Amino acid sequence: MKLYFSPGACSLSPHIALREAGLAVELAKVDLRARKLEDGSDYTLINPKGYVPALGLDEGDVLTEGPAIVQYIADRNPASGLAPAAGTLARYRLQEWLNFISTEVHKQFSPLFNPASSEDIKSAARDRLSSRFEWIAAQMAGKQYLMGDTFTVADGYLFTVMNWAPRVKVDLSRWPVLSDYAARIAARPAVQDAMRAEGLIK
User: Does domain 2-80+190-197 have CATH number 3.40.30.10?
Assistant: First the structure.
């Protein structure tokens, strides 16, 4: 498999999943502004959408969209416990989390990274993010991870987007449960390996 990524972008989520699952992967760094790979080739020939992540499969197919990719990775190694079994209520709870993170957290960061966004738009986005994190913090009471005591691909995804908060002046320190949660995930060896491979930590 080949993971097309940009350091620290949402592609960190499947990168973490791959390492947690113990699956071999080749990394291909993408320049998102130029939409080119390191060899100068056109990334849109891989993913016409032009963004990461994309996962090149051994069979020749390319899978896109983070929530779909991480479930695929989890299903490649069910023993990893990264996702509950397909068809169970727990699996639908995982999908519930992945959809919430994707639409209500991940995408709320977009205006904050857009230089064309006015301060009013950015302020509204921060307010929305604060309300989402407030809700997540309430769900985390008494839990180690989003689904209970087991790390899943949803945790890798939430951890990835939470890392963006300091860059856009979203203060997560108001919720100690979230700070503890992020530190717990950051300490996982597979997470450290992924971040080190992307040059995010030494």
Answer: yes
